[in-house]
Amino acid sequence: MSRQSHISRRVAALAVSLVLAGGAAACGPKDAAGGSGGESSGKPGAAGAPQKGGTLTVLNTEPQNDFDPARLYTSGGGNVPSLVFRTLTTRNREDGPAGAKVVPDLATDLGKPNADATEWTYTLKDGLKYEDGSPITTADIKYGIERSFAAELSGGAPYLRDWLVGGETYEGPYKDGGKGLDSIVVPDDRTIVFKLRKPEGEFPFLATQTQFAPVPKAKDTGVKYEEHPVSSGPYKVVKNTGDGETLLLERNENWDPKTDEERKAYPDRIDVRSGLDAAVINQRLSTSSGPDAAAVTTDTNLGPAELAQIGDNKELASRVGTGHFGYVNYLAFNPKVAPFDNPKVRQAISYAINRTSVVNAAGGSALAEPATTFLPEREAFGHTPYDHFPAGKTGNPAKAKELLKEAGFPDGLTVTLTHSNAQNRQTGPEIATAVQQALAAAGITVKLEGLENNAFNERRWDAKNTPGFFLSRWGADWPSGGPFLAPIYDGRQIVTNGSNYNHAQLNDPAVNAEIDEIAKLTDLAAAGKRWGALDKKIGEQALAVPLFHPVYKRLVGKDVKNVVISDWTGVLDISQVAVK
């Protein structure tokens, strides 16, 4: 992550928080699309074979403010934008773990690396066209990437600025006098080559980002491009009002399904309505009257109260989709602040934590899975089980007191826990209070410092003023251990003049070297095992206390078919949905 990219990461953090709106996290259902705990054991959604036709309605709380591929952060732009923007690679649109794989999209394969993965070459498929029938070329992909460097189009993922040779100083095509970025080479209309500053075996994951969507230079209107971006996907934008509050997508007749194995594009139209209250959305989906029978949401979860209302209603339960996304909620330590500079104090807190009470505070076992590892419990991330400080289900206060005595605090100690005042069941007062009560049993008095959410985020990301003890969370940019561990524990990514995510300010040469070695691997399965082993090794230092991994529960309208929920996003994939 570049030192200039803190604004981008804030956008990402916000995007992830929107995924969680309406409910929080953790322990219970293990399947990605079916369920347990009162849900139907089959896939959610209406029965019958999906057919083409009809209008899919999308009911959301947050408007799609950014519809420019340069400014979108999430892979494929998330859900709705992935219907308009195709990229060199994309996520595999399948249920569960299979959906955490990266697959070709505009490209014929996942890219061909050179010997040390510092150069990646892609070839485009034949017959690719924009909505106006003109051909998609690699020059358009090069230009689309270059415009993402323009200051006025900031907001996208920061990796290209870090990874591409010359990317750290490039200012975009509006200022380069037509020169372009030399590290992106286009020898012909179907070939594109990327030259990197260092080995990056996970470049195929990066190529799913919407910055890799083609943009024809002649159609670029700068900051106004988002009003009518040129479609390379199965749908085109025909209306965008209220800064993304209302979107209407219709079929792109020049999209050829023979070139796109991932997007099913069943509905004729996608009608997106945003700015709605979460409770209203879930009520409308539950009732499923009129157009709402063919409706979904891409940003609103069911909360504990709503799940309780569904209860034994088998019809409603059959319409609840369950998913998992690469995400962890945790207690963070800043070892530069006493008494957290003492490893035994950090270990004592790790032993004292009561994960049952934390899970309950997060919404209950239907919405949160207790965590003892930093990496999510998914193979794609390289998850390796460990529990260095076994606290059991309700904490181990006796062991915590023993360690406190060894640390020089036989009579206990008083610490301050910084948290957000937002009622979000993640970093807010509900979780903070659960932690406070658990630590009290071990003789640790916890004073709660609640901050307004923006102030809280500024504080926890400020290397010069990071609290000694605070609630935090992290989500993956793609399903791998790399975007989880590198920003949090790579010492070279410590930022002193912007947003810093290495909360412990760990700068261990051995950790840094292992991150570099794993980055060289183009065998993603082998890389996953190394990420898991690194997570386990770092975990021995008690620099964080993993609390829980979230689970997402979302309702669909009664006529919605073909619900697919992958471990990449953890939520319904709109490109697979049918309403007839």
UniProtKB/TrEMBL annotation:
Residues 41-54 have a biased composition (Low complexity). Residues 29-73 are annotated as: Disordered. It comes from the Bacteria. This is ABC transporter substrate-binding protein. Residues 1-26 form the signal peptide. GO terms for molecular function: peptide transmembrane transporter activity. The keyword Signal applies.
